Amino acid sequence: MPAKLSVNLNAVAMLRNRRDLPWPSVTGLGRIALAAGASGLTVHPRPDQRHIRFSDLQPIRDLIDDEFPEAEFNMEGYPNESFLELVERHEPEQVTLVPDDPAQATSDHGWDFRKNHNLLGNVVARLKKKGFRVSVFADGDPDPEALRIARETGADRIELYTGPYGGCYDDPEKAERVAVELGRTAEIALELGLGVNAGHDLTVANLPLLVAHIPALAEVSIGHGLTADALEYGMAETVRRFRRACGEAV
Ligand SMILES: CC(=O)[C@@H](O)[C@H](O)COP(=O)(O)O
Ligand SMILES: NCC(=O)COP(=O)(O)O
Question: Is residue 250 in a domain?
C-alpha cells in the first residue's frame, strides 16, 4: 500500500496571515488538496497562532465532514491543556504529539520517551478514550528501548522526524545513510506493533528513497515543500491570468 499523503496547511496559513485578508484561503487550498486525492489535512496550531489560527480548525473539520468524509484530519502539537481542549473540540481522526517548546521556530526533534513516559501515558490514555488515533513524534535513530517506551504509552503510531533527512538534499551519500537509519527505526517500531508515519522537510525529490527504505510507511504529512511546489508549478498560469486581467490577449 502506498503511503498516504496528508497536506499540512501551516505554510498556507502563514502566507494568509501577512494581511488581514482571507486569501490564500486555508480551507480553499485544503479543498483543492483533497479533491486532488490527498488523504487528509494536517495542521500544527502553535500557541501564538502565527500560522494556523484556532478559528481555522472548525472550517477544516466541516470541510472534511461535509465534502470529503473519507479524509482524515490530523492535529499536531505539544499536549498542554489548551491543545488538548482544541483537539477534543475538533475531533481529529489522528493526533500527533510533538515535544515543541512554544518559542520554537519549527519542530526539530522527537520525544525523549524515557523522560516523558508518564506525561505521554496520561495524555495518550485521555485521547484514546475519545477514540482518536495517537501518533508520537520520534527521532530517526534506532533506539529499541525508547521505542518500547513509546509503545508502552499506548500510542498507535510514531511519526519519524525526517528533518535531518530532508537536510541532506545536497549530499546523496549522507541521505542514503540517514534513510537506512530511518528504515531500521521503522522496522523496530513495526515489530513492536506501532504504525509508522513520517514528516518534516519531505519533498518530491527525497520521498522515493524514504519510501524504498520504509515500505510499510503509513502516512507522510507535508507542508513546506509541497506549498513551495504549489507556488512554483502554479506561477505560470497565475501570471497569464493576471496579464489577461490587465487587458492583454493571452
Ligand atoms: C511536526 C512537524 O514536523 C510539523 O508539524 C512541522 O512542525 C510543521 O510545523 P511548522 O509549519 O510550524 O514548521
Ligand atoms: N508532520 C510534518 C508536517 O506536517 C509537515 O512538515 P513540513 O513539510 O512543513 O516540514
Answer: no
Q: How many domains does the chain have?
A: 1
Please indicate whether residue 222, judged by its CB atom, sits closer than 6 Å to ligand 2: yes
Supply the range of the domain harboring residue 82: 4-245
Index of the ligand 2 atom closest to the CA of residue 201 = 10
| Vertex 57: Cα angle to 45 and 105 (nearest 5) | 15
Whether 200 is catalytic: yes
To 5 degrees, how large is the angle CA 156–CA 98–CA 212? 60
pLDDT at 209 over 90: yes
Grid coordinates representing 194 are: 506501532
* Protein residue closest via CA to atom 1 of ligand 2: 199
Minimum-distance ligand 1 atom for the alpha carbon of 98: 1
* pLDDT for 16 beyond 90: yes
Q: For ligand 2, is residue 201 a contact (CB within 6 Å)?
A: yes
Q: State pTM to two decimals.
A: 0.97
Q: Is 90 assigned to a binding site? A: no
In a domain, 144, yes or no: yes
Residue nearest atom 6 in ligand 2 by C-alpha distance: 200
The ipTM is 0.95
In eight-state DSSP terms, residue 208 is H
Domain CATH number, residue 110: 3.20.20.70
Q: Which ligand is nearest to the CA of 15?
A: 1
In this prediction, residue 103 carries a pLDDT of: 84
Question: What pLDDT digit, counting tens, does each position of 175-203 carry?
Answer: 999 999 999 999 999 999 999 999 999 99
109 is catalytic: no
Q: Is residue 21 part of a domain?
A: yes
- Distance (Å) of CA 47 to CA 8, 63, 80, 82, 241: 17, 23, 10, 8, 37
